[in-house]
Specification:
The chain has about 220 residues and is an alpha/beta fold. It has one domain: NAD(P)-binding Rossmann-like Domain (Rossmann fold). The strands form 3 sheets. A 6-stranded parallel β-sheet has the order 3-2-1-4-5-8, with helices on both faces. Strands 6-7 form a two-stranded antiparallel ribbon. A two-stranded parallel ribbon has the order 9-10. A hairpin with a 2-residue loop joins strand 6 and strand 7. About 45% of the residues are buried.
Length: about 220
């Protein structure tokens, strides 16, 4: 089974994706600017099943078979640009959202190319970028007994890469893959994360996206 590296994997969102990937049998490497911190965070996660979680530098995580970008939005492009060589030829999963807080709400920001996925794709011309994992509450992801039953909306221009990411998502406990379409949908999908988080703040909840009418 493929190894999966997570750039910026020590944050709540990266940890949530990491523990559920490991519980699906993947060997996961949490990356960080601080390799020692990444190792400490990884050691505290307890996935179920045959997968493992270890921690190292972002550069070390970039050498995995598939790489997820979970860094803060304002450092994502710089992070992947510095790792162009090890990321070349790979599927890169962007879960990055450009958001800003205004009072009790989060509002979407629109980078020059319209979405963070497009920004990352431009920075990695020799990789294949797929978007996923945008609307998931981190606390529910990290807790394997949370009862999470969420749809993960997937987009990207490469159909084979989309299907590959969908297969990975379907193996993760509590998650279901929904392929939406091409990179042209990235801006709308990323921006909707602001709506999800703002609802959760207002209602003190941990809601997530579940699309009725689909057969899983």
């Amino acid at each position: 089974m493929s190894t999966v590296g997570i750039l910026g994997g020590t944050g709540p969102a990266g940890q949530g994706v990491g523990i559920r990937l490991a519980s699906a049998g993947y060997d996961v490497v949490l990356g960080s600017r601080d390799a020692e911190r990444a190792a400490t965070v990884a050691a505290k996660l307890s996935p179920r099943g045959t997968g493992t979680v270890t921690g190292t530098s972002n550069e070390g995580a970039a050498h995995c078979d598939v790489v997820v970008v979970a860094t803060p939005w304002d450092s994502a492009v710089a992070t992947v640009s510095a790792l162009q060589e090890p990321l070349s030829g790979k599927i890169i999963v962007s879960m990055v959202n450009a958001l800003a807080r205004e009072g009790r709400e989060l509002v979407p920001l629109y980078p020059p190319r319209g979405s963070m996925a497009a920004q990352i794709a431009h920075a990695l011309p020799h990789a294949t970028v797929v978007g996923a994992f945008h609307h998931l509450p981190a606390s529910e992801m990290v807790t394997l007994d949370s009862g999470l039953d969420a749809d993960v909306i997937i987009f990207g221009d490469d159909a084979v890469a989309r299907e590959s990411v969908a297969t990975m998502v379907e193996a993760m406990p509590g998650l279901h893959a929904v392929i939406a379409g091409t990179m042209s949908l990235a801006s709308a999908i990323e921006a909707f994360t602001a709506v999800c988080i703002s609802i959760n703040i207002r209602h003190k909840a941990h809601s997530y996206v579940k699309l009725a009418g689909l057969s899983h």
